[in-house]
Amino acid sequence: MLEFRQDYFxxxxxxxxxxxxxxxxxxxxxxxxxSEIIRICQKHRLTYYADWGTLxxxxxxxxxxxxxxxIDIALKRADYQVLLETLSEELPDSWSVSSxxxxxxxxxxxxxxxxSKVINMDPEVIKRFHGCPYMVGVNLYPLDYIPEDETMTDAxxxxxxxxxxxxxxxxxxxxxxxxxxxxxxIERLCQISFDSDKPLRKQxxxxxxxxxxxxxxxxxxxxxxxxxxxxxxEPFRLKKKWYAETIELPFENISISVPKGYxxxxxxxxxxxxxxxxxxxxxxxxxxxxxxDYLRALGRLP
Length: 302
Description:
By secondary structure, the chain is an alpha+beta fold.
C-alpha cells in the first residue's frame, strides 16, 4: 500500500484549479492500481509509457494534470499482449480486467485494469484505497507499427477502419438489418471467413487487432494508436526512436516511465503542451458522477 503525506488529501488549488479531497482520494486509488501494474511490468520485463494526459501531467505537473481524473499508459503491442495474458494470474481476485481478450461484451479498443468488479463499500476495501469508495482503473493503450509507404498504410487503414467501425456500431447495424452487408464486405476485403458459431463482435475486435499487427518493427519508423490515426484531426505518427528508451519522472508520490522522446511525443499529441488548457467541461468529468448517483440511491452518500 502506498504511503501519502498527512496533508496530501486536503483540498488545494493547483494552477488555479481547485482539486477536492474526493478527487485526491480517487487519484490515490488510481495510483494504487498503477503501482500494481508497474510491479507486474517490472517482474515480466515489460516496458510501459505514461500516455496522453498522464504523460502530460508527469512532464508539466510532476503528477496529475489538476483537472484530469484518470491514468493512461501505453505499451508496444508485444508487451501489451503479454501484460493482458499475465494480469489474471498476478492481480488480486477481487480486481478486474476489461478487455476484448477477457470479456466478450467489451467494446473498446482500450483495456482497463480496475480495482474491483463492483462498487465495494467494505470498510477494509475503502481503507485499502485511501477512502475512495469508487471503482477506479488505469487505461492501457496498445502501440503498433506503421510503414512509411503510403500505399501500404492506406490499405491497412481501409481494412482497420471498416472492421473497427463495424465492431463499434455492431448493435445498431444489427438493428437496422445492415450487419450482414458489412460482415460480407469485411470477409472480401480481408480475405477471411467469420465463424458463425462464435461471438461475431468479439471476432471483429480480434480481427481489428490482427490488422494492427501487419507490419514488424524492422519495416517501420513509426508507432501509432490506430483509433487516433483514423479518427484524429492530424496524422498520429510517433517516431519509434522517441520510444526506444524510457526515463523516470516523478508523479505525485511515485515515479513513472515516460518515453525519452517525450517532448516530441507531447507536441504530436497536444501542440504547445506547455500551455495549460482546461477540459473540465466534459460531460463525463468527473468519471465517478454515475457511481455517486448509485451510492446516493442506496443511501450511502448525502
